[in-house]
Amino acid sequence: IVGISGKLGVTRVITLPKMNSTHTRDAIQLQLSQYVPFSPGDTSYDYKVLREIKEEDQLQQEILLAATRRSMLDGLLRAMRKAGLVVVGVKITTLSSFTLFEDQYFDSDQAVAVCDVRDNVTDISFVAENLFRLSRSVEFGAASIVEAVRRKLSISNEETIEYLHYNPVDLTEVFAT
What we know:
This protein is of the alpha+beta class and 177 residues long. It has six helices and eight strands.
């Protein structure tokens, strides 16, 4: 299973009238340009019905839509095949992060944020009422934190990483200047 950065994918929670899966896919395809920031012809997507809800005497369905650029995905899949790997699935990292911890927050009565901090990007998934609600990618990652702490303490990169392993750091203090 390949994970793609949240920057390269789109996740949205949308509401449509309750209908069968064929009609749901057709409705999403017709309205795709409203949900994703790239052309529908260059979009690869999938969806999952999260729950049924009743609105104004009409049965609705809340849907999690995940999409990415087909051109980017095709290039990634070709590279994986060329490397001799068999891809059985593609996940947007924000959704991957959520599904890793989904069971731990089952029946939680609080909203939960799952943060996937990588070198230069942090993906944040928000879950409420046991359902994925929203995700965002932020151009801020571990490299930014290490560099800010390194400058603040005037130590080397290696010393900074060692320091961060054993000491809590208040990021509001580190980035306050």
